[in-house]
């Protein structure tokens, strides 16, 4: 079959791709220092921002000047830097803030792992594990500050996805939804809020669940949502008629992914559903978020983004059949399956 051919990039675009990490790292510094938060109270000079963050003013100025050239701040006529719609998204408590995602992707773990991409390509091994001598989940157990940043980053990027899932998928026929690897509970919380009859169970690693419990209580959902610290490779909680997994299956190779799916299958009723929220990689060469997200999985976890055919395969191996794939406006589709 002929694949659509994308326009080859012009030289400036090639250069832009090559140097993209320059701007990424500048955005990291800007965000890690909390400059978007500081700009909330009005435009500031580089000197004021450097004093507030204990940085070297002339160097910080150069970072801000560069970021002003791509809209992350705006330079005012009187030599100050002001918030823009982009920097607003990086403010800590902005709705759907990308602050934590920026810090996680460009900070301590993802960035060095990406620097080691060659290792994955050469050996088929996980670049992160090779660099850090432990897998990402062990690393987070031992580096609790980075883990907190990661969990917050998941909650942040999850906000927009949750809205899409709720708009496109009807949870009302279910009695109990189990969120398998649900992190701090952003998704299950919004599902329960939108469906007052529904009960929820949130499963994640014990140290993550500790942080989740307080959030469920704060949302006023403690009576409808049980939190369970556990290991989805051993088992998942019983009693659900829907098992939802957002950004879980893509973390794992086929063998591990099938184990998780089998564990869900083992606990669900014959007319229960498995709902996977992950990218579905198009078979053609069109640009799609999933294709580089897939490399992120390669270097970080040894997982992968999958095509529809690949989902059919792993679901089949777990005794499940794919019912439908619902595309969304965010980088994920809803893949619904049920027991064969
Ligand atoms: N579903 C959430 C989090 C995705 S990140 C969201 O979309 O925002 C992947 C999650 O899997 C993390 O919260 C991590 O702690 C959890 N996880 C990893 N290994 C696990 C295991 N063996 N058992 C249970 N949870 C696990």
Taking the sheet with the most strands, its summary is: 7 strands, mixed
SSE class? alpha/beta
Q: How does the overall form come out from the CA principal axes?
A: globular
Terminus-to-terminus distance? 31 Å
Low-confidence stretches: none
Which hetero ligands occur in this complex?
A: S-adenosyl-L-homocysteine
| N-to-C order of helices and strands | HHHHHEEHHHHHHHEHEHEEHEHHEE
Q: Report the C-alpha radius of gyration, rounded.
A: 21 Å
Mean pLDDT equals 94
Number of E-type strands: 9
Count of helix runs: 17
What oligomeric state best describes the polypeptide chains here?
single chain
Beta-strand content estimate: 5-15%
Roughly what percent helix?
A: 40-55%
Strand order within the widest sheet? Answer: 5-4-3-6-7-9-8
Structural overview:
The chain is an alpha/beta fold and 340 residues long. 49% of the residues lie in helices and 14% in strands. It has 17 helices and nine strands. The chain has helices at 11-18, 20-32, 35-39, 46-53, 57-68, 85-89, 99-106, 110-115, 117-123, 127-132, 136-142, 144-168, 186-194, 206-218, 254-267, 289-300, 308-317, and strands at 74-75, 81-82, 176-180, 199-204, 225-229, 242-246, 273-278, 320-327, 333-339. It has a seven-stranded mixed β-sheet with strand order 5-4-3-6-7-9-8, sandwiched between helices. It has a two-stranded antiparallel ribbon with strand order 1-2. A hairpin with a 5-residue loop joins strand 1 (74-75) and strand 2. Helix 7 crosses helix 12 (144-168). The longest helix has 25 residues, at 144-168. The radius of gyration is 21 Å and the shape is globular. It starts with 10 loop residues before the first helix and ends with a strand. The mean pLDDT is 94. S-adenosyl-L-homocysteine is lined by residues 137, 154, 158, 181-183, 186, 204-205, 208, 231-233, 246-248, 251.
């Amino acid at each position: 079959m002929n694949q659509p051919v994308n326009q080859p990039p012009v030289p400036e675009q090639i250069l832009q791709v090559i140097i993209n990490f320059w701007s990424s790292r500048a955005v990291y510094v800007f965000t890690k220092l909390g400059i978007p938060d500081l700009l909330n109270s009005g435009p500031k000079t580089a000197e004021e921002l450097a004093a507030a963050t204990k940085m070297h003013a002339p160097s910080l100025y150069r970072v801000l000047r560069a970021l002003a050239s791509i809209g992350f701040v705006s330079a005012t006529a009187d030599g100050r830097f002001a918030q823009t719609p982009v920097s607003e998204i990086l403010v800590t408590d902005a709705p759907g803030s990308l602050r934590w995602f920026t810090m996680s992707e460009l900070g301590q773990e993802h960035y060095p792992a990406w620097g080691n991409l060659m290792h994955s390509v050469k050996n088929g091994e996980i670049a992160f594990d090779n660099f850090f001598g432990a897998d990402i989940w062990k690393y987070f157990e031992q580096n609790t500050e980075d883990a907190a940043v990661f969990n917050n980053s998941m909650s942040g990027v999850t906000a927009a996805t949750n809205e899409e899932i709720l708009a496109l998928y009807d949870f009302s026929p279910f009695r109990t939804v189990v969120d398998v690897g649900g992190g701090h509970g952003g998704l299950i919380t919004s599902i329960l809020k939108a469906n007052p009859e529904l009960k929820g169970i949130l499963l994640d690693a014990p140290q993550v669940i500790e942080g989740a419990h307080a959030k469920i209580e704060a949302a006023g959902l403690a009576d409808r949502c049980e939190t369970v610290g556990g290991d989805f490779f051993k088992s998942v909680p019983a009693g659900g008629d829907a098992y939802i997994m957002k950004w879980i299956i893509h973390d794992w190779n086929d063998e591990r992914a099938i184990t998780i799916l089998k564990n869900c299958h083992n606990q669900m009723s014959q007319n229960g559903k498995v709902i996977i929220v992950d990218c579905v990689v198009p078979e053609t060469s069109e640009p799609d978020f999933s294709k580089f997200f897939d490399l992120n999985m390669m270097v970080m976890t040894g997982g992968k983004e999958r095509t529809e055919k690949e989902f059919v395969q792993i679901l089949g191996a777990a005794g499940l059949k794919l019912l439908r794939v619902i595309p969304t406006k965010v980088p994920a589709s809803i893949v619904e399956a049920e027991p064969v």
